[in-house]
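Lab notebook, bench 4. The sequencing result for the construct came back, and we need a structural model before the next group meeting so we can plan mutations. Quick request posted to the team channel:

Model the 3D structure of this chain.
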Amino acid sequence: MPRTLVVGFDGATLDHCERWAGEGRMPALASVMADGSYARMRSTIPSNSAVAWTSLSTGMNPGRHGIFDFVLPRRDEYGYRVASREDRRVPALWTYASEAGARVAVVNIPMTFPAEDVNGYMVSGMDAPRLDERAAHPRELLAQARSVNYRIMSKAAHAFESRDFETAERELVEVLEARGRFVVELARRRDVDLLMVNLEATDGAQHFFWQHHDPGHPRHDPGMAVRFGASIRTVYQATDRAFASIVQAFDPDTVFVVSDHGGTGTSDWILFMNDWLAAEGFLSARPRAVTSAGQRLYQQAKKRLSVPARQALQPLFGRMLERVKGAALYGDYQWDRSRAYAHMQPAVRLNLAGREPAGTVTAGERDSVLGEVAARARDLRLPSGEPAFTNVYRSDEVYRGHASGGPDLVMETAPGLHIRSRNNTAQRGFLLRLQDVGMYLPSGVHARMGMVAAAGTGIERLGRVEEADIHQVAPSVLAVMDVPSQPLDGAPFGFVTARPPAVAAAPAGDRHPHADLTEEEEAEVMDRLRGLGYVD
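Done. Here's the predicted structure in C-alpha cell form:
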C-alpha cells in the first residue's frame, strides 16, 4: 500500500500558491506541482470550513454527511448548537482505511471531535473545546502534543480584534510550527499508511491580513502595509516549510496538497440576513425587550471578554446578559407570524410546520414561499448595483440526500460580502457599511475556489489541469491506497491513474463514547468561531 500524505493548506488560493511557488518562496509545494498535477478546486456551497472539510474527507455532499455548518439547529427550540463529529452520518476516508487494515494518523481536521477510535492516531481539529482526552486517540498522544506546545487554535483572532497585528502574525506562525513539529514526530515513526494534517494558518492569515495585502481593500493603510503587507506571504512560506519537514520525515509515495476553499478580501458591506428577511415580510419581531444600551453591553462583553471572564461575571450580570443574548438572536421574534429565518450563512430556513417548534409554513405552501424568498434574494442589490447574491439555489439543487438540519435555500454572495444573522448595532438597517456600525470583522473571507496539487505513485504528471471538485479528494486518496469504500459523490481526479477497488460495506460504528459539550465547552468553541467571523 503506497504511503500517502494529505496536507491541508487551509483556505489557500491557487493564485497565491502559483505566484509564490514560481518566485521560489514555496519550494516544497513547487516540487509537487512540477512533478505531478494541480488545479483550482471548487468547494461547497456555502464555502464554510465545517461543510467543506467534511465533504473533502468523506467524498459526500452535506445532504448525505449531515454537516451544514459549525452549528446546527437545536431540537424543539429556535437557535443553534455547536455541531460535532458525531453529527456526521457517513464514514470518512480514514475510517475506510482503518477498516481495511491500514494505519492512519489524522491531525487537526475540522469536525473530528471527539477523536475517533481509528487504527492509529487522531488529534481533533478546531471544533474541540480544548486539548484533552476526548480530543486525542490514543490518550497517550496528549503528552507528546503538550511537549511541543501543541495548541488546538492560535489566539490570533483576539490579537486581531485588538489591532495587534504583530502578535496575530506571531501567533499564527508559532502555532503552525508547533503543529508541524508534532506531525514530524509522528511521521518519523513511519508506522502509518495514511498521514493527513491540516495546516490552518494560511486561512487565518487571509482573514486577518488581507487589508494590508491588497491596496484596493477598503481598510488598506499604506503605512501599515509597509510592515504587514507581506504577512499572508510570510505565513504561506512558513506553511511550506512545515510541509517540507513533514515530507522529509514521512517519505511518502504519494502526496496530496488540498485547500478546503479559497479566500478574498472583503467589500466591508454587511448583510444582516434576518433583518433583510424581516424587511421583506418573512420574519416578524416584537418591539425590542431590551434597551439599545443593554444590547451594546452584551456585544461588548461578547467581543472583549474571554469566556472565563464572562463566566466570572455571570453572578452579577448573568440574568441581564442572557436576556439580551436571547433577544439578540431569536428571542423577540414572533414565530407564529414568521415564515423564514437565517443563522450565520447565506442561507434561509423555512419556519416549516411539523419541523420547527412553532412552524407556520405548511408542506403545501413550501414551494411558493421558497419561490418568494428566492425572488426577493435575486432582486437584492448592493449600492454598486451588483446583485448581493450571485446565485440562489433551493437546497435540493445543491444537496443530494436526506440529512436533517440543513437550510431550504442556499445563496452564493457577491465577492467579499460579510454575512451576519442579526443587526444588534445602534445603526438600523439590513445592508450597512462596516465603518458605520462600529464592528471590527476580518478583512478576508472565504471564496469558493480552492486548490489541489498531487504527485507520486498513482498520479500523472500533467501540470496544471482543468478545474476539480472537492468531493474528488476522498475517492482519489482511497483509489491510490487501493482501499474500497461505499459509492461516493465524487470520482477520482482525472490525473489519478489508480482506479477505485470494489465497493465496500459500511465500516463498523466508532466505539468512542458519546461526548456532549458542556455549556462552558460550547462557549469556548463559539468564542473561537466568533473570532473568525463564523458566528455572531
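Confidence is low (pLDDT under 50) at residues 318-323.
Will bring this to the meeting.
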